[in-house]
Specification:
By secondary structure, the protein is of the alpha/beta class. It folds into two domains: 3-200 and 339-436, Aminopeptidase; 206-337, Alpha-Beta Plaits (2-Layer Sandwich). Helix content is 35%, strand content 23%. It has a six-stranded mixed β-sheet. Strands 10-11-9-12 form a four-stranded antiparallel β-sheet, with helices on one face. A hairpin with a 2-residue loop joins strand 4 (113-115) and strand 5. Helix 1 packs across helix 4, helix 2 (17-28) packs across helix 4 and helix 6 packs across helix 7 (306-323). The longest helix is centred in the first third of the chain and has 21 residues, at 124-144. It is elongated, with a radius of gyration of 25 Å. Bound molecules: zinc ion. Residues 96, 126-127, 160, 189 line the site of zinc ion.
């Protein structure tokens, strides 16, 4: 790219610093708390009004009937699209608009407060700062290249923090991430401005239930204790499965480092009579529990076979059953998302990588997320593989008290995003150089 054009893009971004800060504060001021899924429409309308003024066509879509959608808490999404002068690729920036509960421990205003270079508030880092950066990037790009090829899309979507079923999964199901319609996706999650996130580990949740027979607690030999059966299942896991998982290492560049192995969490366990209300003062009854339920959260690696991930839990149960003939059990799958990792030679990875080198003067770090995010729906339902997460903000601050995003980081990320648009929608840097000379 010529110095003149690079300078104009740089100035277009830097000249919007105050606008970027104000937009972030406006977005954070809308309490899009999830659960329950508050104020989604208001946030979509703010994004819509802003991008309509920048020449985007707006669609607002309610994910009617998805989990959580109801009249008090409708699941609204917004998609804005700006067509270029000629046919070409479409670059899509997808941000979730929902934020997690505020929680305790704040010393700043959880709905937006500026202190120097930082904007504090719930959702500043995760991920309204990234959304604001993508809007500023698109607007700066349009100022310098009004005559671009292809199209730009910016979406604000619901419910990422609770699985994304009323957000990206819904839109993907409606065809909005069809590779014939969208060719490149950037999700501006807070992965730090020098990192490209290629994907995530797999997740498999299942509920295991063991059954016994109720009897008087003073004569347990007349019953069959479902909790002891579950104890045997956990012992088998401790002896065999947990050590086997810890020994499996991955080539995926997962951060933090501790997640570069297979992991399993026992998410919840309950057996026997239901827990009473906290103000209940009575004593428990003497009973042998006839059922026990456990939720298992298994995170797995791209090197592992998804069928085997399930099968090895089935094998644990079968092995325990062989030792405990009275054991009866059930296993119910709750959620299964295979791992995904966009290849490093994918066009969006290459383009953002070049932009990071140009803006920050260093090569990017490539990372993979330990948990899933909306890329799973774009990959699986949308069948679009050319997708990454890239955005400003320090990942560790997400969901914490005094969450913040740095204005400088947002500007740098916006610059990376705008350069990526230039690369993908103006015939590349060579064409830009030719045009400028
Ligand atoms: Zn997020």
């Amino acid at each position: 790219m010529s110095i003149a054009i690079a300078d104009r893009l740089h100035q277009a971004i830097e000249g919007r610093a105050e606008d970027l800060a104000a937009l972030t504060l406006d977005l954070v001021g809308i309490p899009t708390l999830n659960p329950p899924g508050e104020s989604y429409l208001g946030c979509c309308e703010l994004i819509a009004a802003r991008l309509k003024a920048s020449g985007f066509a707006i669609q607002k879509l309610r994910a009617v009937g998805t989990p959580g959608d109801c009249d008090p808490y409708p699941r609204w999404n917004v998609i804005a699209r700006r067509e270029g002068a000629r046919p070409g690729d479409c670059v899509h920036f997808n941000s979730h608009i929902d934020v997690v509960q505020v929680g305790a421990g704040w010393t700043t205003d959880p709905f937006g407060e500026r202190r120097g270079d930082r904007i504090y508030g719930r959702g500043t880092c995760d991920m309204k700062g990234g959304l604001a950066a993508s809007i500023i990037a698109a607007e700066a790009f349009l100022e310098v290249y009004p005559d671009f090829d292809g199209a730009i899309e910016i979406s604000g979507t619901a419910d990422e923090e609770s699985g994304g079923l009323g957000g990206v999964a819904y839109l993907a199901g409606e065809g909005y991430f069809d590779p014939a319609r969208v060719q490149h996706v950037i999700i501006p999650e807070p992965l730090n401005k020098e990192r490209i996130c290629l994907g995530h580990r797999g997740v498999y949740w299942t509920e295991i239930e063991t059954f016994g027979r109720i009897a008087h607690g003073s004569m347990p030999f007349l019953g069959d204790c479902a909790v002891r059966h579950m104890g045997a299942v956990i012992r088998k896991m401790e002896d065999e499965l947990f050590p086997a998982l810890a020994a499996r290492r991955t080539e995926m560049p997962v951060v933090p480092e501790g997640a570069r192995q297979s992991t399993m969490n026992i998410n919840a366990i309950h057996g026997g009579e239901p827990e009473q209300e906290q103000d209940y003062t009575g004593l428990p009854a003497a009973c042998v529990p006839d059922h026990c339920r456990m939720v298992v959260d298994r995170r797995y690696l791209i090197e592992e076979n998804p069928d085997e991930v399930r099968q090895e839990l089935v094998d644990v149960l079968a092995a325990v059953e062989a030792e405990r003939p009275s054991l009866r059990y059930d296993m119910r799958d709750i959620l299964h998302v295979p791992p995904t990792m966009t290849p490093r030679d994918a066009p969006i990875v290459q383009s953002v990588s070049r932009s990071i080198t140009s803006v920050l003067g260093r090569d990017p770090d490539y990372v993979v997320s330990p948990g899933t995010y909306d890329q799973k729906h774009i990959d699986r339902i949308g069948r679009l593989k050319n997708c990454i997460a890239y955005g400003p903000g320090i990942l560790d601050l997400a969901h914490q008290p005094d969450e913040y995003v740095s204005i400088r980081d947002m500007l740098d990320s916006a610059h990376v995003m705008a350069l990526t648009l230039t690369d993908l929608l103006t015939g590349g840097t060579d064409a830009a150089r030719r045009a400028a000379t």
